[in-house]
Design goal:
The structure is a single chain. This protein is mostly helical. It folds into two domains: about 1-45, no CATH class; about 50-88. About 45% of the residues lie in helices and about 10% in strands. Strand 3 (about 30) and strand 4 (about 35) form a beta hairpin. The longest helix has about 35 residues, at about 55-85. The protein is rod-shaped, with a radius of gyration of 25 Å. The relative contact order is 0.10. It binds zinc ion (2 copies). One zinc ion binds near residues 12, 26 and 29.
Length: about 90
């Protein structure tokens, strides 16, 4: 049975798994504070980064998508109503 090896150091044994990307990492690459790998997922959670958290952006995207769908449905509804009115 082959044991896990660090994704960045194939010669090193992995001591943990990144909680974000799930890749095995050695003690050098693993950040116990975040539970993530330093190289791939550590940078994205750098403290002090300005701007809104990414969660807010996702919510905004969902709201915009819903509004776009509602707008499209409204136009479609108006078109159907217009067709019905004209056919009568
Ligand atoms: Zn990772
Ligand atoms: Zn490593």
């Amino acid at each position: 049975m082959e044991s896990y090896r660090c994704m960045n150091h194939p010669e090193k044994m992995a001591v943990a798994q990144c909680t974000r990307c799930g890749k095995p990492v050695c003690d050098e690459c693993y950040n116990p504070e975040t539970g993530r790998c330093r190289i791939r997922c550590g940078e994205m959670t750098a403290p002090g980064s300005a701007g809104a958290p990414p969660h807010k952006n996702v919510v905004m995207n969902v709201i915009v998508s819903i509004l776009a769908i509602l707008g499209g449905l409204l136009v479609l509804l108006l078109a159907i109503c217009g067709t019905i009115l004209f056919s009568n």
